[in-house]
């Protein structure tokens, strides 16, 4: 019998429609805040791709786009605390207004590191936008100006979020059954 991804989902936490609404609201705020400017959106691979694509399509302003790939999880369900850059930017951030686009912020370690790295490279400003926020997991004091939705401390997958490179293609955010990752 074929294994279906949805068999591993305990519950849908954020529906496809809620994702679309949060994304549009964030895009509206960013469009207003950056009107007449040309921010550089930096998507954090791989998880932020669906959110980044939907977000930038809803922003009718001039933007630039680049990507970074970082890791602090590996094949684990919790952050190791060590941030490794797997793919760096192709674009200079010198004197640029940066918007880091992330799928989820939990401990804050990765974005704390990235924000400081980009500022040290001469970025004019660095703001963070995330679809999901897990404030109960925060170990770093980091300001997140643009938050789509705060969620409780569950292990979630879907809409770019994965466990061991699986579940990214679900169109919603679901709670993964504990027996799958423990």
Beta-strand portion reads: 25-35%
Give the strand tally: 9
Helices, by number, come to 4
What is the top-level CATH class? Answer: Alpha Beta
Tally of distinct domains:
1
Cofactor: Mg(2+)
Organism: Urinicoccus massiliensis
Family: Belongs to the purine/pyrimidine phosphoribosyltransferase family.
Subcellular location: Cytoplasm
What would a concise description of this structure say?
With 182 residues, the chain is α/β, with parallel strands linked by helices.
Task: Describe the protein's topology.
Blueprint (H helix, E strand, L loop, with lengths): L8 E6 L1 H19 L5 E6 L3 H9 L6 E8 L12 E4 L9 E9 L3 H12 L4 E9 L12 E5 L5 E2 L15 E4 L1 H4 L1
Parallel strand pairs: 2-3, 2-5, 5-6, 6-7
Antiparallel strand pairs: 1-9, 3-4, 8-9
Helix pairs in contact: 1-2
Task: Please give a structural write-up.
The chain has helices at residues 16-34, 49-57, 109-120, 178-181, and strands at residues 9-14, 40-45, 64-71, 84-87, 97-105, 125-133, 146-150, 156-157, 173-176. The chain is α/β, with parallel strands linked by helices. The chain has a single domain, classed as Rossmann fold (3-Layer(aba) Sandwich), CATH 3.40.50.2020. The strands form two sheets. Strands 4-3-2-5-6-7 form a six-stranded mixed β-sheet. It has a three-stranded antiparallel β-sheet with strand order 1-9-8. One of its GO terms (molecular function) is guanine phosphoribosyltransferase activity.
